[in-house]
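Protocol step 4 of 5: obtain the predicted structure for the target chain.
Materials: sequence only (see below). No template structures provided, no constraints applied. The aim of this step is simply to have a reference model before the mutagenesis design in step 5. Sequence pasted as it appears in the construct record:
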Amino acid sequence: MQNNLPTYTHYKPSGVQWLGDIPEHWKVKPGFTIISERKEKNIGLKINTVLSLSYGNVIIKPEEKLTGLVPESFETYQIVYPNDIIIRPTDLQNDKTSLRTGLAKNHGIITSAYINILVKEGNNSSYLHYFFHCVDITKVIYGLGSGLRQNLDFRDFKRFSFLVPPLSEQTAIAQFLDRKTAQIDKAIDLKEKQIELLKERRQILIHQAVTRGLNPDVPMKDSGIEWIGEIPAHWEVTQIKKIAQTTSGGTPPSGNIKEYYNGHIPWVRTTDLNNDELYDVPEKITDKAIRDTACKVVPVNTVCVAMYGGPGSIGKHSILRFSATLNQALCGIISSEKLYCEFLYYYVKFCRPYWMINAKGTRVDPNISQDEVRKMSITFPPKSEQIAIAEHIKFLSKKIDTAIGLKEQEIEKLKEYKASLINSVVTGKVKVTENPEG
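Step 4 output (structure tokens):
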């Protein structure tokens, strides 16, 4: 798409490797000539709107996320004005994926851990925001910084080479990119919503299959369970404990005993669960750990459910495609001759919202117990129907997964195009007129 944009007539070497050739009339200047660091503290708590840098955007932080901050701490925050550029300077060494820069649109305060850039008069803040973004996404920013964790400091930008077009062109570039990136972001947002609808569709299909079966003409009866509703008349409703075995995991083997780790037996934790089939985990323990501790090995096709670990973890699940040991936050459900493991897995996937509703404990740290998992109601069709339902869900899930995968590829291409467009326009590889259309 950007190939349709014109280029400048004359170029010259920039003298900066990552910039390459630049428009002949553009200048390369050191940072201190066009930016300075704003270090205005919020003394006297003059401002109470707290800002945060999130995914390359400077946003107002919701009040519910300010827990733990006493009001006096806000005096150490720095005041941010609209059109300031915010940079997250920490931990370049270990994080090369996050977006580190953003343009402030609100008057507020932000933690002093950030660098707050003031754009000097005669320059367009939005253009320089896109320039900083370009420095970030091209990974040039990771050549800066110092210290063990490679943290940035404003001094890293004082002598950094900035590409400076005339102000009228800076403004035109900023307006063009504002419009184009908004169009691209809108397209990405639409595809992300389509993905969510596909995921909802899959959950509905699972719900219908595990509670109503595959024959729409079969006689129905009330299950007696409100959240299950009607089921085929020839099905039963029972409890997991009556048709499957459950087991809880054990506490981790002591990390002080090196002979317990780097073995061949998978050790499954809540963080490993993916709400899908699980084929491997990073942590492995040894036979000695099994002999010396309470860790038990569960068989292939065990369905794991997270019992606690925070609101996002309750009911998190996987079906293990390997034998493994489980940590104490997990309940393993082992199917029987009566219960097809794949049907159990899809039923657990359907059940997660109801486990969440029934989770006990405080709002901050709800949980369920192994006993609650054991007592959970489960629909119980004949074994042949369990197998047919599982195969039906698997077939439809693959089709939906394919559609989701295509949408995700389209999103990645749009993101790549957005990054390429910003880079090409900001560095002068393509020309933007002062009043661009479209």
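Step 4 remarks: The mean pLDDT is 90. The first helix runs from residue 125 to 137.
Proceed to step 5.
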